[in-house]
Automatic annotation (TrEMBL):
Xref: SUPFAM superfamilies: CO dehydrogenase molybdoprotein N-domain-like, Molybdenum cofactor-binding domain
GO molecular function, one term: oxidoreductase activity
Signal peptide: none
Natural source organism: Teichococcus deserti
Residue ranges annotated for the Aldehyde oxidase/xanthine dehydrogenase a/b hammerhead domain, each copy included: 32-139
SMART domains, sorted: Ald_Xan_dh_C (SM01008)
Alphabetized Gene3D superfamilies for the sequence: Aldehyde oxidase/xanthine dehydrogenase, a/b hammerhead (3.90.1170.50), Aldehyde oxidase/xanthine dehydrogenase, molybdopterin binding domain (3.30.365.10)
Record-given protein name: Xanthine dehydrogenase
């Protein structure tokens, strides 16, 4: 189904099932421990799996000059050792910047250089410790600040509209400030894990992955196998946050290990290995220049961002939101990319906008103060309803102002004292902060297959993943609404590369695109049902397990026949995605308390107001947003990969050293969804919301800390040493 005209009234709009705050249909499986995660499969095909242990490179850059494997080979239980020297020819794959199995060249610290396969985990780990590696260390670049001047301009996300330099220079009120965000780790709960089994020249990998088609494609490419010889299965994912968008070393090495050992092999990356072995969110240095008239209207907006990555990698697109968030005729955005030999950077939790708003929304707070304006009023004054670089291009929906207004009223913003450091609650200095939230709404082709059985049950199959987000549930809701059956009559099967290719879970495009794909397949199935039963599908109503038209009705099950009825389709998005700027908006309000003596910072209250199209399930959507707000606390106050700039590695490579918020750090959180439907986005009229939830949070916290203390911190995380 091609989606190239605004959506009209359709069965989804009945909202009997879609839009309801239903519990997750996969919840009972998870809470009873029956949902199998990648490392837990015990079924027939992997029953005799051996265990693989990954050896990571001990240097960041250079060359392996010798590898002594004999002692490990002779160790108890060892079945095979895989290295680049014996793995056979491997391609790099498309999605990764550097090879997943290094050697003899080493591209980054803890790049996998060997897999030891043994009868059990302890034997594999013990044998791995016996491997001796000699290296010739080469000099590398590990310090973003030191390489900043070598960074090259990147075309992506660049804008030059009007006369930025001239207008900025002449503006009566100006801000020129530089902000930094650190390297961050996804730190999802479930580590990367896979179990692989070969059947002749076919391999199946049960893994933990957000994008099945990307992963299967790259595994085939890397192993130089035809695509149809590779199957990836990832029915449950214990968190991804961008760290599982691609094939990673666990999956590739499980496949190579299983081939070498002649047995299924399971591999999990240990937590201490993950931080340097997998991808991370790259650090940024961001310079923002804002120019405004005394009336508070922005006339010049400039945002430049520097980040680094391995040769051939990409930038952190931290200027993306600045192209679209506020009005202002003269605009400049520019990314610059330095080559660093740190582990590979990539997408993490709203890549681009999340770190970009960490800077931009402090800058807006600083500018409001310079102008003597309230930060909410300042943002409202500079709203735009069109793409500020192209006035002919409207937003499909844009309710930023409503988000700010409703949030301010709900949060008690009028009680904020604009004089920093002026509110006290015993030993605590208290403050309020606000930030706008912005994240683009991406749409991607997505397919699904539906089957109607003779008992009237509907089964949906798509390679869409549920990374803890609620995909199972919203897909079941979509099929139930479209086919007019109760939700417990719908079975959803996800995360298998033998199912139709979906949008996958990334960039907050999954919910809207994948349900729209299911919608398309449902339309086909409705047609097939109507045709089989001799109904005119245009005026047929699907309800209560029946199809009705005029005074005729029939049970859906009748159409299934003994063999069932199958329909498959995908949604393809036309140029509505270009004609309209599609984005999601929100506002975050935060209250913090800072201990006047120790600088300890506690977040006391948080509110998010989101405008993100139709909310398919307010319960799972709220869970997404409060999770994202929690990550925002991490981004503001805790999360930082500490770079050893001499040896080129992240030092704090476990959850003791890499701090994320725990329950005691998370205060009262409230989420409001504005009533919005967006007929431009898809037949579902929905958008993404998960990543919107993190966008702006950290700046709202930093602004609240400033309001509490009067100390402006421009370097994240905002730890107490920086504002004492
Ligand atoms: Mo997202 S960072 O594209 O999983």
């Amino acid at each position: 189904m091609k989606f190239d005209k605004p959506a009209t009234l359709n069965p989804i709009d009945r909202l009997r099932v879609v839009g309801q705050p239903l519990d997750r249909i996969d919840g009972p499986l998870k809470t009873t421990g029956q949902a199998p995660y990648a490392y837990e499969h015990r079924h027939q095909a992997v029953a005799d799996a051996a265990y693989g242990h990954v050896v990571g490179a001990g240097i960041a850059k250079g060359r392996i000059t010798g590898m002594e494997l004999d002692a490990a080979r002779a160790a108890p239980g060892v079945l095979a050792i895989v290295t680049a020297a014996n793995a056979g020819p491997l391609d790099k794959g498309k999605m990764n910047t550097v090879r997943l199995l290094g050697g003899p060249e080493v591209d980054h610290y803890h790049q996998a250089i060997a897999l030891v396969v043994a009868e059990n985990f302890e034997q594999a780990r013990a044998a791995a410790a016996l491997i001796r590696v000699d290296y010739a260390v080469a000099e590398g670049a590990y310090d973003l600040a030191a390489t900043r001047d070598t960074a090259k301009k990147v075309d992506q996300s660049a804008t030059a509209t009007g006369d930025f330099a001239g207008t900025y220079a002449a503006a009566p009120v100006r801000l020129d400030a530089t902000y930094t965000t650190p390297d961050q780790s996804h730190a999802m709960m479930e580590p990367h894990a896979s179990v692989a089994a070969w059947d002749g020249d076919r391999v199946t990998v049960w893994t933990s992955n957000q994008m099945i088609d990307w992963g299967a494609g790259d595994l085939a490419r890397t192993l130089k196998l035809p695509r149809e010889k590779v199957r990836l299965v990832s029915a449950f994912v214990g968190g991804g946050f961008g760290g599982k968008l691609f094939l990673r070393a666990d999956a590739l090495l499980a496949a190579l290990g299983a081939r070498a050992a002649g047995r299924p092999v399971k591999v999990a990356l240990s937590r201490p290995l993950m931080m340097n072995n997998t991808t991370h969110r790259p650090a940024t240095i961001q310079r923002i220049r804002l120019g405004a008239g005394r009336d508070g209207r922005l006339t010049a907006i400039g945002h430049e961002s520097w980040s680094g990555d391995q040769e051939g990698g990409g930038p952190e697109t931290a200027v993306d939101q600045t192209r679209l968030l506020y009005a202002g005729a003269n605009r400049l955005t520019q990314l610059r990319l330095a080559v660093l030999d740190l582990p590979e950077g990539n997408a993490m939790r709203a890549p681009g906008e999340a770190p970009g708003l960490m800077a931009l929304e402090i800058a807006m707070d600083e500018m409001a103060e310079k102008l003597g304006m309230d930060p909410v009023a300042f943002r409202i004054l500079n709203d735009t309803q069109v793409d500020p670089n192209d006035p002919e291009r409207p937003f499909s929906q844009r309710q930023l102002v409503e988000c700010l207004r409703q949030g301010a009223a709900r949060f008690g913003w009028e009680r904020r004292d604009g004089r920093p450091g002026s509110r006290r609650d015993g030993r605590w200095l208290t403050g309020l902060g606000v930030a706008a939230a912005f994240r683009n709404n991406l749409v991607t082709q997505s397919g699904a297959r539906l089957r109607l059985d003779r008992d009237g049950r509907v089964t949906v199959e798509t390679d869409m993943t549920d990374i803890g987000t609620g995909s199972y549930t919203i897909i079941a809701q979509t099929a139930a609404e479209m086919m007019g059956v109760a939700i417990d009559r719908v079975t959803v099967r996800l995360g298998d590369s033998s199912f139709p290719v979906s949008a996958g879970s990334g960039g907050q495009w999954g919910a809207n695109s994948a349900t729209a794909g299911v919608y398309a397949a449902c339309v086909k199935l409705r047609d097939a049902v109507a045709q089989r039963l001799g109904f005119n599908s245009a005026d047929a109503v699907f309800e209560g397990g029946q199809i009705r038209a005029g005074n005729r009705s029939a049970d859906l099950a009748e159409a299934a026949g003994p063999d069932g009825l199958v329909a498959e389709d995908s949604i393809e998005f036309g140029d509505l995605a270009e004609t309209y700027q599609q984005s999601t908006f929100g506002a975050h309000f935060v209250e913090v308390a800072v201990d006047a003596a120790t600088g300890e910072t506690r977040v006391r209250r948080m509110l998010a107001v989101c405008a993100a199209g139709r909310i398919l399930n307010p319960k799972t959507a709220r869970s997404q947003v409060i999770g994202a707000m929690t990550m925002g606390i991490g981004g503001a106050l805790m999360e930082e990969l500490a770079v050893d700039t001499r040896h080129g590695l992240f030092v704090n490579h476990d959850l003791a050293g890499y701090e994320v918020p725990v329950h005691a750090d998370v205060p009262h959180q409230e989420v409001i969804f504005l009533d919005e439907v967006d007929p431009i986005s898809s037949p579902m009229k929905a958008k993404g919301v998960g990543e919107l939830g993190i966008c702006g949070v950290a700046a709202a916290i930093a602004n609240a800390v400033y309001n509490a203390t009067g100390v402006r911190v421009r370097d994240y995380p905002v730890t107490l040493d920086k504002h004492l």
